[in-house]
Design a protein that fits this description.
Shape: elongated
Region (Disordered): 319-342
Order of helices and strands: HHHHEEEEEEEEHHEEEEEEEEEEEEH
Distance between the termini: 167 Å
Keywords: Metal-binding, Zinc, Zinc-finger
Strand content: 15-25%
GO molecular function: zinc ion binding
Helix content: 25-40%
Strand order of the largest sheet: 1-2-5-6
Oligomer: single chain
Largest sheet: 4 strands, antiparallel
Number of strands: 20
Biased composition (Low complexity): 331-342
Structural class: alpha+beta
Number of helices: 7
């Protein structure tokens, strides 16, 4: 028996004892804080829908999905703890099976470590690449200590390549070190309950190598940022500007401010003065009373654009000139001569 095998045997004994240990009864608490957060997001969603803020609604929906997934994950974890507590009271784990599972890990993973003092099993995955995006290696850490209500594990990036859209996410299905297990949940729970730790690490590793866009915290399409709907440039949330007209988010190059009210507008919602071409929103432009084209207030005189105003002025001058000339050409009627009565 080599050093690793000896360490694995001692770990197997410790793990078996921890898993067999009957946890004291404790009251199961509901995740009320997560539920209240969901309620707030739903109110924000309704507000965005009422104002037709499509981009804001999409962002809120993404956060809503994340909050729902987090709540579902929390509930699954609490359910699993109850199930594992029941299994601990009724199942006698096979020490030999646990030992064989531990010594089999170096055949599956390049890095394996056992920390008896802290009750930790650790493996490192190979480099993970999803749809051409390199996410790097991940550290899977299982803690069998009995300090928590049940054994737990977490996953962390060793070579983090976080999303540009949200740097908190290093994998589409990981949030704060917690893996969204999806369809693998039952397999992971069964492997842990039966002491099949090599299977457990393999299932988690395979889950990390699997992508499901419908359940991702951040989709791979948006991994390097949210694309501007106009030019397609990927931007982080801080680099996007929401159009006050349509509600969509655009990069700074595709959004401009109205020169009068300073509202931010995209190219589709922005209009320009027909004369000076300065950008304005629809509300800050006025139609010329003669030609009906839109102009800013600086390019209107008495409700008319410069061209129409000049035309009207010329027409008025011609009318005045005609009236003056006409008055001069009309002869003054002669005064009738007085007649003398015979």
């Amino acid at each position: 028996m080599n050093d690793f095998q000896g360490l694995a045997l001692r770990a197997a004994c410790s793990i078996r004892e921890a898993l067999q240990q009957i946890q004291p009864d404790h009251e199961t608490e509901l995740p009320l804080a997560d539920w209240n957060r969901l309620q707030r997001l739903l109110r924000q969603q309704r507000l965005a829908q009422e104002h037709e803020w499509r981009t804001a609604e999409r962002i809120i929906n993404t956060r809503l999905i994340f909050a729902m997934e987090h709540l579902a994950l929390d509930l699954r974890q609490r359910t699993r703890e109850l199930e594992q507590g029941m299994l601990k009271r009724s199942t006698q784990l096979d020490l030999r099976l646990i030992y064989e599972e531990l010594i089999a890990q170096p055949n599956e993973f390049s890095e394996v470590s056992i920390d008896l003092r802290h009750g930790i099993l650790r493996v490192v995955t190979d480099e993970i690449v999803l749809e051409g995006i390199t996410l790097g290696r991940f550290d899977i850490v299982y803690n069998w200590t009995a300090e928590e209500p049940g054994p737990c594990y977490d996953v962390h990036a060793l070579d983090p390549s976080p999303s540009s859209a949200n740097s908190d996410f290093v994998h589409p299905h990981i949030s704060d070190g917690i893996l969204c297990e999806g369809e693998a949940q039952s397999g992971i729970a069964a492997a842990l309950a039966q002491g099949r730790f090599c299977d457990f690490f393999l299932i988690v590793s395979n889950t990390l190598n699997t992508y499901n866009s419908s359940s991702a915290y951040v989709t791979l399409k948006e991994w390097y940022g949210t694309p501007c709907p106009d030019c397609g440039t990927s931007c982080s949330d801080d680099e996007l500007t929401h159009c006050n007209g349509c509600g969509d988010a655009y990069c700074d190059e595709c959004c401009d401010d109205c020169r009068r009210c300073r509202e931010s507008l995209c190219g589709s919602c922005m209009q320009s003065c027909e004369d000076c071409s300065t950008p304005h929103c629809r509300d800050c432009l006025t139609s010329c009373s003669e030609c009906n084209h839109d102009f800013c207030s600086n390019c209107l005189t008495e409700g008319c654009c410069e061209s129409c105003h000049e035309t009207l002025s010329e027409s008025e001058n011609e009318d005045n000139s005609y009236e003056t000339t006409h008055d001069q050409q009309i002869p003054t009627p002669a005064t009738p001569a007085a007649t003398t009565s015979p």
